[in-house]
């Protein structure tokens, strides 16, 4: 127990010193395992983990869903979504920012990646908002916050990884993410309304409505059709969630060909970006598996469960403490690293807590509900300083906008996310209604 806690402290120090999280977790996990079991078993464990993770069939969904999102981004689908959303909200004060949030939600539904959503929508929405006089704070805040929806609205790469870590039903996790994702979109739209009402200088009184073209309509229909195709295929029993990634990737190529916006260079960029992102994610997963083997062998999850039992803490108090830990970790860890680092420790503790509700009487339902709570808490970390990965993605795409400007812009959306997190924790039926 002591060694595992020391290991976690060393890991956090290494992260603060900017050691890449994948290497930090692998080093701490490997050395800790070696101190407990010996260096030869530790070397064997590391080699086995690298080999098994690289050959894990379930992880094939990661590059496939990333590729699907990259193909749609390169084919110009996002422009069509934005134009359609602008048609709905364009004449309202802050309408372009609302259109950005709505189109981010639509793009997330077929992308699965928050960073890809933020990067794509920054290229689509930012020029329009600047042209019509939007303050950079509101413009960048709407893009950064809207991008976070990519890790919750299915198909979500983060939900898939949570399912693999906990051996829970990925299809049910997808279902559980739909209503909280819609609540998130509504919360962000309200955040824009409140922000422009309190500070009218953030947005002009009347936004410009972009003309919607036949190509845009085709793009919107294509995105909706792809989402329905994936979800209906999974729940209709035509293919598994893992097979859905391959079907979605193939369907995205067909849609891109029909829309006609995908060039040869765009396709090559999609391949390269997919390979780069997948390599990064696999490195982090391997590091997390090594670290997880260390803390599991050290008995940290079992010890925490015994401590909770011995203290007689209320289940809701335990959950609140865990949520607060996630919010604190979000200050200096990026989302995927945070999930891979903490879920193996926390989920055995949460799964058998008694929350006193009929809908949470099954450990499986508790686990799915906990997964949505973790992902929403992780969403908040994507726009929380000083790390805020979505903020840094925007900063790289928009080098003329200061980091401080973007962080000030996401404040209203960050507050909306806290309200949504409290709602999901306090009203489990929001996450579990479709599952039940």
Poorly predicted regions are none
Counted beta strands = 0
Fraction in beta strands: under 5%
Q: Average pLDDT value? A: 82
Which percent range fits the helix content? Answer: over 70%
| Gross geometry | globular
What is the tally of helical segments? 21
Radius of gyration: 22 Å
Order of helices and strands: HHHHHHHHHHHHHHHHHHHHH
Question: Largest sheet at a glance?
Answer: none
Distance between the termini: 38 Å
Question: Can you describe this structure in just a few lines?
Answer:
By secondary structure, the protein is mostly helical. The protein is built from 21 helices and no strands. The relative contact order is 0.15.
Q: How does this structure look, described?
A:
With 436 residues, this protein is an all-alpha fold. The chain has helices at residues 2-16, 21-37, 39-54, 61-74, 77-89, 95-111, 114-131, 136-147, 157-166, 170-198, 214-235, 241-259, 264-298, 300-311, 315-329, 335-351, 363-381, 389-397, 403-409, 411-426, 429-432. Helix 6 packs across helix 11 and helix 17 runs antiparallel to helix 20 (411-426). The longest helix has 35 residues, at 264-298. It is globular and about 65 Å long. The two termini are 38 Å apart.
